[in-house]
UniProtKB/TrEMBL annotation:
It comes from the Bacteria. The keyword DNA-binding applies. Coiled coil: none annotated. Keywords: DNA-binding. GO terms for molecular function: DNA binding; DNA-binding transcription factor activity. Signal peptide: none annotated. GO terms for biological process: response to stress. Residues 6-144 form the HTH marR-type domain. This is DNA-binding transcriptional regulator, MarR family. Pfam families: MarR_2.
Length: 168
């Protein structure tokens, strides 16, 4: 039975969890200085990196660690803070989109330099460039296996659905 405790699979997942927890703690302290939670930063990044700077709410839930009701609560709060805006889907009345506002993009732009410094300090400089590339391949493969919807909505064309540009 003791050989199960020493199983390298347990070690691998334990190390991954410890690394994620350590990085999250460093990131959370930085983000708090910009009046953002880790989840709010994740939402802003997902939207900013999406076509048209917006996603359907269901796709945003699929791409994040949030449930659909969790995404609704976060988007409601961020909309009240002026960081996001919501619009109805013109082709499906049951759906709506969340998009980054000018204020949200400004907050993200102010936050990113320090965030990138922390990523460099605690993560990317710990690996050689080829190791980082290989790591990204491995993590993407694992992500795709455990969360096949992680890129939901990434291939949509907002021009065909959205007559309006992103607004404040």
């Amino acid at each position: 039975m003791s050989e199960l405790h020493d199983d390298p699979r347990i070690t691998a997942i334990g190390l991954l969890a410890e690394a994620f927890t350590g990085l999250s703690a460093r990131f959370d302290a930085h983000l708090a200085g910009h009046k953002l939670s880790g989840v709010e930063f994740e939402v802003l990044m997902r939207l900013a990196r999406s076509s048209g700077h917006e996603l359907r709410m269901t796709d945003l839930a699929a791409q994040t660690s949030l449930s659909t009701s969790g995404v609704t609560r976060v988007v409601d709060r961020m909309e009240r803070d002026g960081l996001l805006r919501r619009r109805a889907c013109p082709t499906d009345r049951r759906s709506s989109y969340a998009g980054v506002t000018t204020a949200g993009m400004t907050r993200l732009t102010e936050t990113l330099p320090g965030h990138l410094e922390l990523i460099d300090q605690w993560f990317t400089t710990q690996l050689a460039p080829e190791e980082l590339e290989q790591f990204l391949d491995y993590v993407r493969r694992i992500r795709d296996a455990v969360n096949p919807c992680a890129t939901a909505g990434a291939d949509r064309n907002p021009e065909s659905e959205s007559p309006d540009a992103v607004s404040a």
